[in-house]
Design brief:
FAD/NAD(P)-binding domain, Alpha-Beta Plaits, disordered N terminus, alpha+beta, Glutaredoxin
Length: 478
């Protein structure tokens, strides 16, 4: 592609129209950033794969303007029902109960994930992107790219190349872009046994329970059938032994369902989507090369246990979006973008450990999986000047709450920073950001807090001394 002048120019080219790429594109669009999403398939992903939206991601979706649609499209997870020999043997709670003192505070979206099939989440994000004036170009398979000090030229199997100032690879665990960059992934096989997952239509099972058929003494693996909220479908998941042949046809799925449950083969009436995989955990050696960033599964691959993959991925996008926005506007230096990998790679590594631990039964689906306690206390963007910080430390998620008639998330919502004071009448520098003064709020303690566009406290102090200098350095003045 040397010396090829791209016909299309854009600020950011997002490769991949999954939840990560679409969430990033929505965030960029509301910031006025010119971005294009390209997807090699001819349509959005059709399956339910990442169906659990954790409380922290619901908060992100609140900010992106899609939470009402997400809530309307889904529902709570049903109680698990254990079956033995065709009989109900007892209930099983899938998620650990929340503790009132749990680190990270209470979310307005509860303590359990909200179930929305991945295909529906993508439709909602895509509709929001269209509403904001963004677009997805389908049938655009990346075959190569070249980058220089000013941008990246990306070539496709069909159609004109695109010239972008930055590229974000959100093209999945087998990322073409990551491989072209030569960035390796370090990881392990979480479970050598293959798993089949399918979206099916079934008769003969109620939709009030997540039906679980445990492994048998003869070595037959587990099978679970979960009603997919907001649809008429069920998600069927079946484990096999390493070396088994997985038949992904309707007849094959009927056979495994009949062999492991009390259902008759004909009770499986339709297969709407099907896939197979071996659970693994892997982390990219780097999340960036020059002007190209990795996000989502392109940067970290999870076992589906614990529901961390989609959620960690969307939050990658949420972290990167505001940073690209201020740098592209010229309001912050380019080296701000280095904090994307600095902040997100350790989080991804932690979430991979949690996913693997849940898969192997070493930890439960509790506080850590909700991602409310995820934060950036050790980030170079975090400044805490109080000698004795309160419940909320710089780098922590900024909790919600309604105090004196003000709901904090309503104030935080949008692509801006927010200045919050609690329990102090200290004078403030004139910053062009929304400002809220509270007489008291126990969830925060006392202090001055500058809340980042992604809902984390960037700077905290007993007074505003040093606040303006910080705001200048991170692009919070425009």
């Amino acid at each position: 592609m040397t010396d090829v002048l791209a016909d299309v120019r854009t600020d950011v080219l997002v490769v991949g129209a999954g939840p990560t790429g679409l969430a990033l594109a929505v965030d960029l669009a509301r910031r006025g950033v010119d971005a294009v999403v390209v997807e090699r398939s001819e349509s959005l992903f059709p399956g339910s794969r990442g169906k659990g939206v954790q409380p922290r991601t619901m908060e992100v979706f609140d900010d992106l303007g899609v939470v009402d649609a997400i809530r309307a499209a889904g529902g709570p997870y049903p109680v698990g029902m254990i079956w033995q020999d065709g009989r109900r043997a007892g209930e099983h709670r899938m998620f650990d109960p929340a503790e009132e003192t749990e680190e990270g505070g209470v979310s307005p979206y509860g303590a359990e994930p909200w179930m929305v099939p991945q295909w529906r989440t993508q439709e909602i994000l895509s509709a929001r992107l269209t509403e904001l004036g963004g677009r997805v170009e389908f049938g655009r398979e990346v075959v190569g790219f070249e980058q220089d000090t000013e941008g990246v030229t990306v070539g496709f199997a069909a159609g004109a190349p695109v010239r972008a100032r930055y590229v974000v690879a959100a093209d999945g665990g087998r990322s073409t872009v990551r491989r072209a960059l030569g960035i390796g992934m370090t990881g392990e096989t979480v479970d050598p046994n293959p798993i089949l997952v399918a979206d099916v239509r079934i008769t003969g099972l109620d939709r009030d329970n997540w039906h679980v058929f445990p492994p048998r003494a003869d070595g037959t693996g587990f099978l679970a059938i979960c009603p997919l909220a907001g649809t008429e479908d069920f998600q069927l998941v079946a484990q096999f032994l390493d070396g088994d042949h997985l038949d992904l046809s309707l007849e094959g799925i009927r056979k495994v369902a009949a062999a492991r449950t009390h259902l008759a083969p004909e009770d499986v009436t339709e297969v709407r989507w099907v896939s197979d995989f071996r659970p693994r955990a892997a982390l990219a050696d780097s999340f960036r090369s020059g002007r190209v960033f990795l996000a989502g599964d392109a940067a970290h691959v999870h076992s589906p246990a614990g529901g961390q993959g989609l959620n960690t991925s969307v939050q990658d996008a949420y972290n990167l979006g505001w940073k690209l926005g201020v740098v592209l506007r010229g309001d912050a230096p380019e080296h701000l973008l280095a904090t994307y990998e600095e902040e997100r790679r350790p989080i991804a590594a932690r979430m991979l450990g949690i996913s693997t631990g849940v898969h192997r039964g070493e930890i439960g689906r509790g506080e850590a999986t909700r991602q409310l306690s995820v934060g950036y206390r050790d980030s170079s963007l975090t400044v805490e000047t109080r000698p004795a910080p309160g419940p909320v430390h710089a780098g922590d998620r900024a909790p919600d709450g309604t105090v004196d008639g003000v709901r904090l998330f309503d104030t935080f919502r949008g692509p801006h920073w927010t200045l919050l004071t609690v329990g102090t009448a200290t004078s403030l520098p004139p910053l062009p950001v929304p400002t809220v003064r509270l007489l008291s709020y126990e969830a925060y303690g006392t202090g001055v807090f500058l809340v980042r566009p992604d809902g984390y406290v960037g700077w905290a102090g007993a007074t505003a001394e040093g606040l303006r200098e910080y705001a200048v350095g991170v692009g919070a003045l425009n």
